[in-house]
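Running log. JK asked me to keep both predictions on one page so they can be read side by side. First protein, sequence followed by its tokens:
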Amino acid sequence: MLDDTAQRIKDKQSLRLSDAQIAKIRTEELVKNLEQSSSLAKSYAKKADLLGLDGDVFNQNSLDKEAIK
């Protein structure tokens, strides 16, 4: 009986470690996604700057207005 209790405690500790590992992996994925989003945002900002658009609005309407000029 004592061995069963010890085994259950050990199993729960293993699960907690797995949860911690999962949390670490998810955090790393979030950081990677944020870095990619930041890079993409910088790319769009650079394109907007090259087109002479203000940084507040970068959408199809702005592109259409620039094409009309």
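And the second, directly underneath as requested:
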Amino acid sequence: MPPQGAKQREIRITTEFITLGQLIKLLDLVNSGAEVKALLATARFAVNDEPDDRRGRKIYPGDIVTLPNQTRVKVISK
């Protein structure tokens, strides 16, 4: 259950999965892969409420990614 007052949004993907690094770029949190690496080294992300800092982590439809600002992003398929 999300923390009270947490923002939620959905991101639609058309592929089987998206990596955490690709999702971070898709959300316009950074401009480049190098920035993704730096952000993951300093900020807290969670996938399905488990902390994760691997930019290659596969995110599938139904997964929920929590951003450092506590926004929860649900990945959905087309």
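Observation for JK regarding the second prediction: The chain has one domain: 8-77.
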